[in-house]
Amino acid sequence: MAAKPKLYYFPGRGRMESIRWLLAAAGVEFEEELFETREQYEKVQKDGRLLFGQVPLVEIDGMALTQTRAILSYLAAKYDFYGKDLKERVRIDMYTDGTLDLMFPIMASPFQPPKEKEEGLASAVKKAKTRYFPVYEKILKNHGEDFLVGNKFSWADIQLLEAILMVEEMNASVLSDFPLLKAFKARISSIPTIKKFLQPGSQRKQPPDSHYVELVKNILQI
Amino acid sequence: MAGKPKLHYFNGRGRMESIRWLLAAAGVEFEEKFLESAEDLDRLRNDGSLMFQQVPMVEIDGMKLVQTRAILNYIASKYNLYGKDVKERALIDMYIEGMTDLNEMILLLPLTPPDQKDAKVALIKERTTNRYFPAFEKVLKSHGQDYLVGNRLSRADIQLVELLYEVEEVDPSLIANFPLLKVTHGSLL
Lengths: 222, 189
Known about the structure:
Structural class of chain B: alpha+beta
Order of helices and strands of chain A: EHEHEEHHHHHHH
Radius of gyration of chain A: 18 Å
Mean pLDDT of chain B: 95
Strand content of chain A: 5-15%
CATH topology of the largest domain in chain B: Glutathione S-transferase Yfyf (Class Pi), Chain A, domain 2
Low-confidence stretches of chain A: none
Number of helices of chain B: 7
Number of domains of chain A: 2
Distance between the termini of chain A: 41 Å
Radius of gyration of chain B: 17 Å
Shape of chain B: globular
Number of strands of chain A: 4
Helix content of chain B: 55-70%
Domain GST C-terminal (chain A): 85-208
CATH architecture of the largest domain in chain A: Up-down Bundle
InterPro entries (chain A): Glutathione-S-Trfase_C-like, Glutathione-S-Trfase_C_sf, Glutathione_S-Trfase, Glutathione_S-Trfase_N, GST_alpha, GST_C, GST_superfamily, Thioredoxin-like_sf
Oligomer: heterodimer
Protein name (chain A): glutathione transferase
Shape of chain A: globular
Family (chain A): Belongs to the GST superfamily. Alpha family.
Domain GST N-terminal (chain A): 3-83
Helix content of chain A: 55-70%
């Protein structure tokens, strides 16, 4: 019987959160080691499992996988969230990569000085409204289906839901001009595995607060 | 007969260069349309050719692909440079993501303000020497094979050669203590 995947990261969202979403969507139970001290982190670094000295690290199927996108692609393929052929896969890659481009500056913002942080978040909300969300609204409008690609739940849908919720935390009305995305959000949120992940008590992590930022800065010595 | 892929970008390396390397390594002839002005970019945006208003964009197999990684993944799969199964692909992805992180630092150097440049170059050298080159040297040493994954040429090897050339341009001495990487560098496919 296969062991559960094991995730190594700080006790917060960061770059690991999208991985947690994908595993949760697949209904896969996973374990976590959450670094509270520098010693814990150094121990993992020293025993050679971090190819580039960095987390996220996911131990799965006998591999020590690092690099967020490598992990996400592996999980998407393994749990059948990657389309039925190469043409569907390239669309999923385009959408998820675009969505991650939107999300990464938001993830980085808590670690920036106040002025850069504020500008970064404002820029992200603007990009969501003018560059990314219109694209997905149009895709849903053009095919009239429930999911972004191939009329089937995929990594693209999971990544987009995570992004929508992330932007909404900064600007609650961000979907006001996107009726199809509103319906999409409700629909994907009600998929049983997703619904479970969105409830209290799941392994979904909280938005970063000052305590989390201090902890990470301390551990990474930045 | 299918048309050649057509690449839309500025006349420079940037984020399109890895795509050029991969197509070239696969022996695929391609055309390029260089953006020479703001109007050129606007035109592409206005005719709906750029999904997220950005280049690179590659016209291939009836599609207008954007997002560098999506394009590279597609080309690598199509031309059989992406490993034999999902586990090999995971290793390839892990290696190329690390390469991309270092390549990104080098790629952005020309855009660095002059007063920050020295610090950025120092960081690139430090990361190359302490993080990235040791990782790839270790992989090659661990299996003793000529290629990074599966004893067969893949996009990981192509991207590594590209990276070694770029690092050499920053500082040719950085590769000095990495004998297996030197072999890769000299092997040019």
